[in-house]
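Fold it.
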Amino acid sequence: MTVTAPSSKPFVSVAPKLGLVGGFDGIRGIGVMMVLVAHALIDLVESWATIVDTFFVLSGFLITTLLLQEHRSTGDIGMRKFYARRAIRLLPTVWLFCAVWIVIGVIGTVFGIEGISLRGILEDALAAVTYVYDLVFPSGLYVIQPDVQDDRYMWHLWTLSVEEFFYFLIPGTVLVCVRRNWVRQLAWVFGVLIVAIGLARWFAFTGFWQNTEGVLPGIRLAFLQRPDALMLGTVLAIVNANLSAERIERLRKPLLVAGTIGLVVWFAMLNLSSGAIEKLGGPYFPFLPDGPAEFSRPQMLAEAPVYWFRFGHTLGALGFAAILMCLVHQRNWWVSRFWSWSPFQWVGRLSYTLYVWHALPFIIIIALTGGVEISVAGQLIRTPFLIASAFAVSLPVYYFVELRVLKAKLRFAAEKETLDLRTGKVVDTSTGRPVDGSESTDS
């Protein structure tokens, strides 16, 4: 289904076509490596969790920008093609991941292997494939239901559920706002919500009815799922859509200053709840309460220093927002050049597969090597093996599943030229052949 906008003054982006931004793949590569290290050494680098805010800001920006760009180029937003692209990109890897875990669960049940629960695996798989993981097993679940969290096998898939909900809502929202020229109003509404969520976290609200046990965990911990980061990405896309080439040229120096400040803030947020920094005598803020006994607003507000979650997600997302605008408009900035390094981009193209699949070998290896309670030295020793195992599992999936999926995705491209995520090159949509000198991007 393609919905055509009416002719009565729809919003039209004036921004230059986005183009291939090497730093986007680069930060995906850097980010997914940070995820692997964080999941191996969680107590030492806990605030690296703000890399999820980074991914969300980037996703919100890219998706909204591409929708606005598509409408400008074609006069339409192809809803069917959009959802086809999302399904082809996201579903096969997750379904295969869940299927492998179910097989492991059956084998574990048949042979009575301790620590493998087919019921728990089926619960996780059902929540994952229906994209409600963030509602039933959300981020931060350990602070209210530690026993439930301990039985999880796919704990990281909450992020995909949050993004999928955003992908479900944003095309229609953007289409209506473009048709009625409400795009700037959408930015203001999202801006108000971003401020409200940030303030709520600052005052130790983790969500709605957070102390009511009968409410879904994802509702009680809604603000820990960082929907504001996705909305921030959309706001950035709308701001960018109002920047003509001439205006961007005038803003080069202010953007560079803002990007540099954003980099400092972003880096600080990554390390203010770091056990490693604490051991070195640096500043440290506890990430979240350790469990239900400490989970009450009066206790969280009374803590000194404040918990990291109260400010870290907000400032981390805002810091990256400034970086993102520099990545788009300051291609010669040293950060843009560094993050565009080809090895980072290669890992970035693998990032989705690595993110989904790393949990499988991580759970098995960690369980076989003393769990999460082993010494810091033991954790450091096994970390390289964990990372190597993640690549060993993910590479076959990427080459034998993902690449075929990405090829099929090209058939549903919205424009005549699009980015082939297999190669990082812009191609003619109809032929799949590289196009010299053209600029496009995709997500």
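The chain has one domain: 8-70+181-428.
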